[in-house]
Design brief:
The protein is α+β, with helices and mostly antiparallel strands. The protein is 37% helix and 21% strand. The longest helix is centred in the first third of the chain and has 20 residues, at 14-33.
């Protein structure tokens, strides 16, 4: 039996990779306008990074991480999300000692989660995300949201809704936790097993439960927005003002908490109406305590992550079309041993001048070479044989019109450009 790709993984084949390249190039253009620079972190990290950074009550840590012991007896985890690794790199490299804020992005980084594969989400998928360290003001919250929305706009993705919330900080959240626990205590036995575990460790996460019975119980639960301290309340009010001045529409959704323990204050989700029930295409928020939790200085942070597979799916669901680039502009057909050698030199000269050129490598007949040139989308074909070699000429054929002309080799580059 042939070996197949593991469940939850997917090959990106040559006929599809141009779509990824288009999106990646668009991301690079937009992030450069906002002043973000690329960061690349390892595919695996010490497991402790995610236990401390992501949180041991999260679904990721409890159920989804690919963790193993290496040959040195160290616990290693394949990266399940992007932020913790970037925060570790920020601290380890000493970037905290430089000018602030530090604005970074990562692109098509592989992440691994053991979960049920679904549309746009695989066990190995790829993420684009931005991270900003050292900026406490709500202006950067609005900027981070704007980066994501500008990307969606550039890709022609519409029918999006921005939902925002504040989940407070370590000063005001404990009081809210008690209010929430008081509300839930009467129905504790009706909570799902995971939410019963969360009840003491992190009751806020119960608001994020996807089990229908739990969702019904929290419908009338107290919300964090009513328990914000003065600092968090002011920050959230400023965020709304910044979004307004940027012309960004939003909805306040008090049940957005996100699935990672490091979030504080601002959390947000961008939701698409075009990809069904799993409509969240981007999520993020502020994590002001993460750098300190990882033994770095007490610097604030904010960012978002989105799946590249889901982004491409959303784009195509919105009617976006990425034009497939041509593989070859000019194909050189040859017949005869000496002509084949000369064709290799001609193709090299064409490529040196920036022209996409190719030739036959499998000893096809002239007829088969023309057929192959049509299949790969060549706009022009050059025919080189023993007679052409002797006369210092080449036959140029326009594939669309079928027009043919004999051209001197010295003039071929000018003729190709004129007929492009």
């Amino acid at each position: 039996m042939a070996i197949k790709a593991p469940k939850g993984t997917k090959d990106i084949l040559p006929q599809d990779s141009y779509k990824w390249q288009y999106i990646e190039n668009t991301i690079r253009e937009i992030t450069s306008v906002f002043g973000y620079r690329e960061v690349r972190t390892p595919v695996f990290e010490h497991t402790e990074l995610f236990l401390r950074g992501v949180g041991d009550t999260t679904d990721i840590v409890q159920k989804e991480m690919y963790t193993f012991e290496d040959k040195g007896g160290r616990s290693i985890t394949l990266k399940p999300e992007g932020t913790a690794g970037v925060a570790r790199a920020f601290i380890e490299s000493g970037l905290a000692g430089g000018p602030q804020p530090v604005k970074m992005y990562y692109l098509s980084t592989p992440v691994f989660r053991y979960e049920r594969p679904q549309s746009g989400r695989l066990r190995e998928h790829h993420q684009f995300g931005v991270e900003v360290f050292g900026a406490p003001d709500a202006s950067v919250d609005a900027e981070v949201i704007s980066v994501a929305l500008k990307l969606f706009e550039a890709l022609g993705i519409s029918d999006l809704a921005l939902n925002i919330n504040s989940i407070g900080c370590p000063n005001c959240r404990p009081g809210y936790h008690e209010k929430l626990k008081d509300y839930l205590r009467a129905n504790f036995d009706s909570l799902c097993p995971l939410c019963r575990e969360r009840f003491e460790k992190n009751p806020l996460r119960i608001l994020d439960c996807k089990v229908e019975s739990c969702k019904a119980l929290i419908a009338d639960a107290p919300v964090m927005l009513d328990s914000l301290c003065a600092d968090c309340s002011t920050h959230f009010d400023l965020l709304k003002q910044y979004l307004a001045v940027l012309g960004i529409d939003y909805k306040v959704n008090p049940f957005i908490v996100r699935g990672l323990d490091y979030y504080t204050k601002t959390v947000f989700e961008i939701i698409s109406q075009n990809i069904g029930a799993q409509g969240t295409v981007c999520g993020g928020g502020r994590y002001d305590g993460l750098v300190g939790e990882l033994d770095g200085p007490a610097l604030p942070g904010i960012g978002f992550g989105l799946g590249m597979e889901r982004l491409l799916l959303t784009m195509e669901s919105s009617g976006g079309v990425i034009e497939q680039p041509s593989l070859t502009d000019v194909f050189v057909c040859s017949h005869g041993a000496q002509a084949r050698i000369a064709a290799a030199g001609l193709v090299q000269d064409l490529r040196t001048r920036g022209i996409k050129a190719d030739m036959d490598h499998v000893d096809r007949s002239i007829k088969a070479q023309f057929k192959f040139a049509g299949k790969i989308g060549a706009k022009q074909v050059l025919v080189l044989g023993e007679n052409e070699l002797a006369g210092g000429t080449v036959v140029l054929k326009k594939m669309e019109s079928g027009e043919e002309m004999t051209v001197k080799l010295d003039d071929i580059f000018m003729m190709i450009q004129e007929n492009s």
